[in-house]
Specification:
alpha/beta, globular, 6-stranded parallel β-sheet, pyridoxal phosphate binding, binds pyridoxal-5'-phosphate, pyridoxal phosphate, two-stranded parallel sheet, TIM Barrel
């Protein structure tokens, strides 16, 4: 992506303290440069592929939310940590098949990839059964890349309206993934279009609908310049991912 190399492989709690401090420092600088309050951006650590052993070190360093793109992996981590770290939050950031909605309803606090009314209705039903609720971001495809999930910006108003009667879902904002390119202008274009879509929807949206989940290790500073309130950072904290 655009700028930042992955952090060095972190192997101790001290490494994680250092990496988190460095990302938080860059977030603060990006906020200052954009004339924004440094508390206006939340760092969501992306923990996919990271083992529970390494996660324990990161949790000791202050990680309190696990951002995961695969439900099964997130569920395994929730099972593993539920007694030891009951305060941990779980954010599902990847696309979800309707038949896996029941797992998300059981333990997730946030879902960043809502892309259909059918999925929203299934989540609502499952959340009722669990007597739980869920914060949701509508994912918008701002890059035009077919490999990226999400709905078109023009479809967001319809999906948001369909959420109104679903009382177990709290719509908190929009999410996107920028184009996979080194062209900063194009990346910023993705982010600024998401911001515009949020502003267009807000007059008819609930008060809670105010967040922009955008920006990853390679582009979170650009995202903050364009108004991100949640940045999803994996490799910048944990080092390069190993999918083996
Ligand atoms: C993996 C992932 C991220 C984080 O990517 P990094 O390059 O590790 O920062 C952010 N958002 C989503 C949806 C992801 O799947």
């Amino acid at each position: 992506m655009t700028s930042q190399p992955a952090a060095a492989h972190a192997a101790t709690t001290e490494d994680f303290i250092r990496n988190l401090a460095s990302v938080n420092q860059r977030i603060a600088s990006a906020c200052t440069a954009a004339g924004r309050d440094i508390d206006s951006v939340r760092l969501l650590p992306v923990t996919k592929t990271i083992s529970t052993e390494r996660l324990e070190l990161a949790i000791a360093a202050g990680v309190d939310t696990l951002g995961e793109n695969k439900v099964q992996e997130a569920q395994g981590k929730h099972e593993y940590f539920r007694e030891k770290f009951p305060h941990l939050r779980y954010a599902i950031i990847g696309p979800l098949q309707t038949n896996k909605a029941k797992f998300v309803a059981q333990f997730a606090d946030e879902f960043h990839a809502l892309d259909s009314v059918k999925l929203a209705e299934t989540l609502q039903r499952r959340l009722e059964l669990e007597d739980r609720s869920l914060e949701v971001f509508i994912q918008v495809n701002t890059s035009g890349e077919e490999s990226k999930s999400g709905i078109q910006a023009s479809e967001a108003a319809g999906l948001l309206a369909a959420l109104a009667p679903l009382d177990r879902l709290t719509p908190v904002g929009l999410m996107t993934m920028a184009a996979n390119t080194s062209d900063e202008h194009e990346v910023r274009g993705s982010f600024s279009s998401l911001h515009q879509t949020l502003e267009q929807l807000q007059p008819n949206a609930p008060e809670s609908f105010k967040h922009l989940s955008m920006g990853m290790s390679g582009d979170y500073e650009l995202a903050i310049a364009e108004g991100a309130t949640v940045v999803r950072v994996g490799q910048g904290i944990f080092g390069a991912r190993n999918y083996a």
